Amino acid sequence: MRIKSLILAALCMVTVGVYAQSNYPFNGLDMNMGNLSRLSDAKTRSISPENFTGEKGKGGMADPVRDKDQRNVANAHHAAKDLGKGWKVNPFIIVKPGETITIAEIEGPGAIQQIWMTPTGNWRFSILRMYWDDEKEPSVECPVGDFFCSAYNEYAQLSSLAVCVNPGSAFNCYWKMPFRKKARITLENINTAEEMRLYYQINYTLTEVPEDEAYFHAQFRRSNPTQGSLHTLIDGVKGKGQYVGTYLA
Length: 249
Hints:
Blueprint: H1 2-22, E1 43-47, H2 77-80, E2 93-95, E3 100-107, E4 110-119, E5 126-132, E6 140-143, H3 144-147, E7 158-159, E8 163-166, E9 170-173, E10 177-179, E11 182-189, E12 196-206, E13 218-219
Parallel strand pairs: 6-13
Antiparallel strand pairs: 1-12, 2-12, 3-11, 4-9, 4-10, 4-12, 5-6, 5-11, 7-8, 8-9
């Protein structure tokens, strides 16, 4: 009887736990195999050169004939001229020397969940910046190559939970980046001699963000020369948060 009582108590505890979880409002973030069945009011969106705003139903709107003379509207019009509207007419953007382009501007609340990029040119000369809410200074400021753990401007495969670098210099980032009011991402080409191309996709979710969600930060530091010098990895950070790691090159 004692064994039966213990088994019954364990089953009751599991049932209560599942019931409590099902009544907790799920915001659609942190999806995994354990919560695939849970429903939410979250809305997933995607920004790319084919849909700069991420607006529903607005992907692939460029016309290869009508828009052929517009930079960053129909950059691949020559390859898509026989396919027409709705195909890959603008799969990349062109960033001129010294130019800064806003590649994403999102009204929140929500969270960026995945970023894919394939940049051309010198990866150290393409500066990625991210701003959360009403920030004037970026929370992320880093060369695109270093942000994706590829400092030497050549392909080197990387497989991890947070960052993956795949064949063809396909950079992937899976850090969760919550924001409450808005998010803005820019890319600056500091190369004064050459333009660069950027293929990219930013996947995000519009949903409520809990009060205990922190903001994502990343910064780049470089010491040259390094022999006999003191290199500071991180300094001046205040407040609560999680230190998630450092990439050294």
